[in-house]
Amino acid sequence: MTPNEIYALPSTDQRDWRSLGREGVERVFGVSGFSYNAFDGRYPVEDAKIVVSDKLYYYEDHDRGTSIKSVSIDGKPFAILMSAGEDGDAGEDCMVTDEELFKVAQRHVLDHLVEHILGKEHGHDVRDPAKYDFPGYVNAMFVRVGDEVRFVDPRHCRRTDGRLIFDDVAMNRKFDELLRPQIDVVRTQGLADEARRLNAIEVLRAAVPSDLKVVEIDRRNDRGDWIALAYTDGVDTMTLVASKREFSTFYWLDISPMQVGPSSVLTAIESHVAGLPIDAAGPAAADIAQMFGCTPLEAVQALDNWGGDMSSDLCSEILNVIGAPSPVDAQEGPLDRWKVHAYVAEHPEAVVYCRGGYPSVKQAKEIMAGVNERRTRDAQRAAAKKV
Asked: Helices H, strands E: what count in the chain?
């Protein structure tokens, strides 16, 4: 049969050309770069400028067969599509019979899809490329180290100005130098050996910029966590802590700085490690007393209690010492964390004493909104029962 004879055959079905899907459009019209969702939607054949018509089909089995289709624009056919096997796996081809009409159809496809994808109003932010300060994206931020630009964990940067305060590249280099040669032993025995543990401290020290004040702690708490170092970047105090599991056996020192309080807290850590009493007139106690409205002696007590652990939450310890109320009863879980949520929601500035910045002010307010909503529902149910 000639192509014209095929064109003259009755059509068993007709569809808008977008029914071909992305691969079909690419294959027939030689255009690409469009997403799958460009072909989502309902496209009535009555409105179609380009129409695909089913002409003949040979049924082989429930998955396999051979089909012949024609393609026309404005009712004028210009190509025949052939497909064999299951989804064309045995062969697919296109025969063009009118090149001029083909080019017109191709132009229509391009114009339509470009308009469909790009021609609508977009919801993107519009920024000045020379002036907009792009900090990073989601869980990473840009930082410059010498002439090098890196994409790093935000926890590795000072929160006020984005300066790098934990250099994991330098840490990894020192790891390769001091611990990598013993990796088989480290994997099975961890840091129990003093020499390996001291090497691990040097590895962690390498991550801290040399101009920041560091206090070496090297002790384990009651849970078995290893508190290695504490340091301040001039804004916050951070601790470097390895969990009990990682202390015992590990493949890598997966440790990041954990914010525990403002920079003044390091003075209390320094006294605690040296076995000296924390000064009630010192900056750490004074800052806590001002922030939480407690006495300096209560602040010292909280710092002393927390100093035996240092991998727990200082905010929680302070609230326990001053007797802050919990917004829920003991049946709903540990009260310490609830106290922190309630206090931070009402006193956002106290978030600097939350370990690792959790809960953030936003998180605390959202959680307390849920608590208050539940209280309201419970009160309404109780009132309804009385009625």
From this structure: 13, 12
